[in-house]
Amino acid sequence: MLKIEVLPLGAYQTNCYLAWGEGSDDCIVIDPGYNPEIVLKKAEELGKRVDAILLTHGHFDHVGGVRGIAEITGCPVYIHEKECSLPEETTAGPLYYTCAYGEGDRLDLAGLSIRVMHTPGHTPGAVCLLAEDTMFSGDTLFMGSMGRTDFPGGSWSQMMTSLDRLKALPGDYKVLPGHGPATTLQAERQFNPYLNR
Fold first, then answer.
1. How far is Cα 112 from Cα 130, in angstroms, rounded to an integer?
2. How far is the C-alpha of 145 from the C-alpha of 82, rounded, in Å?
3. Which residues, other chains included, contact 17 with Cβ-Cβ below 8 Å and sequence gap of 6+?
């Protein structure tokens, strides 16, 4: 069973998630945008080792804590390689990562099987991460909204295609976005204007 802790961090209250499978001594960290010391302290409180950092995209408010965590834990850092095309003013310098992942990849980490969906639109290499009945949607899908497409590398047409793919997924998912409250995919199918255009 998937276990999750959420840490809203920094001025943009970016949702950083610690996730693990029940019984695992490890956890993954998704989008540590700020305050690596807070993330590491929470992992310690939970009695978890950080197995890996997974990034939904490369904007500064999602990656700012990466290096601090990786340097202390030695964990791998995953991102879609298309994020390397983002200008450094949007990533606060060169992106730090050790592994690239992409559409259809599966990762077995911290007692979880995680599937990667490439969902460009907010950025060229944005991904959503699916684990059990939960979707970590980054800045692709929010409650009642979607990520902006007017930043460098953004694309309205790609975002619409990505949202259509999410809408078409079978079943329902708990949606944990990069900012704001959790929702469900079924609720967004019904009420999100960008999925009902």
1. 10
2. 24
3. 4, 5, 6, 7, 29, 30, 31, 136, 176
What's the Cα-to-Cα distance from 153 to each of 4, 124, 129, rounded to whole Å? 30, 6, 20
Q: Which residues contact 160 (CB under 8 A, 6 or more apart)?
A: 121, 194, 197
pLDDT of residue 197: 82
Q: CA 9 to CA 191: how far, in whole Å?
A: 28
Residue 143 pLDDT > 90: yes
For the chain, the average pLDDT equals 97
One-letter amino acid identity for 166? L
Residue 98, pLDDT score: 98
Residue 128: which pLDDT band, with cuts at 50, 70 and 90?
very high
Q: Which CATH superfamily, name and number, covers 2-191?
A: Ribonuclease Z/Hydroxyacylglutathione hydrolase-like (3.60.15.10)
Query: For the segment 38-94, what is each residue's pLDDT rounded down to a tens digit?
Result: 999 999 999 999 999 999 999 999 999 999 999 999 999 999 999 999 999 999 999
What are the boundaries of each domain within the chain? 2-191
